[in-house]
Amino acid sequence: MPGAEAKIEAPAAGDPLLDLLDGSVADVVGKLTSVSALGLDQLEAAEKDGKTRKGVLTGLTEERLRRASFQPTAEQIAELQQMSEEKLQEMEDGATADGYLRAIAAIAAERARRAAEGDNA
Fold first, then answer.
1. DSSP class of residue 2?
2. Helices in the chain by DSSP H: which ranges?
3. Is the whole model's pTM more than 0.70, yes or no?
């Protein structure tokens, strides 16, 4: 059906991602920054199928919101300006995989600046 969202499945038994949910709420939430966007979805599905801890579900939502609201600092922009195109591409690939849309926007802005200035560091 067009427009229908695919149901995200919990990780398979034995998946190391699933082991994260064995920890306390604080442990789980503390490790969410290192989990990919798909991993966050999978953890949410697994948590809803299991313990349904409000603190874990809230932590997942807060991590998604944190990623969506990323705004680069002046220092981060300066670092982007010093990166080679290869390093920018590597960073963009990682940001895409992890769902960091604001980071991708910052990279796109840096590429636009370089194009406007004829600078392809």
1. T
2. 16-19, 25-31, 37-49, 54-68, 74-82, 85-98, 101-117
3. no
DSSP 8-state assignment for residue 33: G
- 44 vs 87: CA distance, rounded Å: 32
Residue 21 has what DSSP assignment? G
Any residues with CB less than 8 A from the CB of 93 and at least 6 apart, and which? none
Q: Residue 63's Cα: distance from chain center in Å? A: 8
Q: Is 53 helix (H, G, I), strand (E, B) or coil?
A: coil
pLDDT digits (tens, 9 = 90+) for 45-57: 999 998 889 999 9
Going from N- to C-terminal start, the domains of the chain cover 16-68, 74-117
Question: Which amino acid belongs to residue 107?
Answer: I
